[in-house]
Specification:
NADH Oxidase; about 210 residues; 9 strands; 6 helices; about 40% helix; alpha+beta
Length: about 210
C-alpha cells in the first residue's frame, strides 16, 4: 500500500458553468440581466477568495470483494453491495478526499444569519462545485499516472451515504486518508467538518 498523498493547495479553473447550473440557470435557456449577472459574479469572486482547496489520496489494495463486502488490504471492511459491484474486477481502490476549508463555511453561516441570503446561496454553490472539481482534479491526475502502468480507473466515483454504502463507513475512509492533516474533522454523526469536505472511492483496474 502506498502512503497517503497530501495536496496542500489545489489550483483549478473556476467551474463557472457548473456553478450557474447549481444556481438553477441553464445555458441558452435561462436569461440573466446584466445587473443580476454582475451581482452573481461579484459574489463568486468573493467566494473564491475564501476557498482554500486541499486534498488527499491513497491507493489501497483490495484483499477481497464479495457480493456484499469489500475488504481492503489494511484489513478494513465495508459492507455494501453497491460498492462491491462498483469495485468488481478491480485490484485496488483509490481513496480521495477534498475540502474547501473553513473560511468559506464561516461566510455562508454569516450571510445566512445576517440576512444576505443571495450571497450565501452563491457562496455555497461555488464551494460545492469547487470541492467536487478538486476531486475530479485528483482523479484526473491518477488517471494519467496509471496509463504508464497500463491500468485505468473506473468511470465515476462512489461516496459514503449513497445507497447501502452507509455514512458510518466514512469513518474508515477518513482514517485511511488521514484527513486531519488537511484540517478536516469527523463528528459523531460521521459528517465531515468543515462541511464543504467530501470523500470518495474509485476503483483501479490493472
Amino acid at each position: 500500500m502506498t502512503q497517503v498523498q497530501i495536496f496542500p493547495s489545489i489550483n483549478i479553473p473556476l467551474p463557472i458553468d457548473a456553478i450557474y447550473r447549481r444556481l438553477g440557470y441553464r445555458k441558452g435557456i435561462t436569461k440573466i440581466g446584466d445587473r443580476k449577472r454582475e451581482e452573481i459574479e461579484r459574489h463568486i469572486d468573493y467566494a473564491t477568495s475564501l476557498i482554500s482547496l486541499k486534498g488527499a489520496s491513497l491507493r489501497v489494495p483490495l484483499r477481497d470483494v464479495t457480493p456484499h463486502l469489500v475488504v481492503f488490504g489494511t484489513g478494513a471492511e465495508i459492507e455494501s453491495g453497491k460498492l462491491a459491484r462498483f469495485l468488481n474486477g478491480c485490484t485496488e481502490a483509490l481513496l480521495i478526499g477534498a475540502t474547501a476549508g473553513g473560511a468559506v463555511m464561516d461566510a455562508i453561516r454569516g450571510d445566512t444569519e445576517g440576512g444576505d441570503m443571495t450571497r450565501g446561496v452563491v457562496i455555497d454553490a461555488v464551494a460545492s462545485e469547487m470541492t467536487d472539481a478538486a476531486l475530479d482534479w485528483i482523479v484526473g491526475l491518477f488517471g494519467r499516472l496509471l496509463i504508464r502502468e497500463q491500468a485505468h480507473l473506473t468511470k465515476g466515483r462512489f461516496s459514503a451515504g449513497y445507497g447501502d454504502f452507509l455514512l458510518e463507513s466514512q469513518r474508515i475512509v477518513y482514517d485511511l486518508l488521514e484527513l486531519d492533516r488537511i484540517g478536516v474533522k469527523i463528528n459523531e454523526s460521521f459528517i465531515l467538518m468543515p462541511e464543504k469536505s467530501v470523500t470518495a472511492v474509485v476503483g483501479i483496474h490493472a
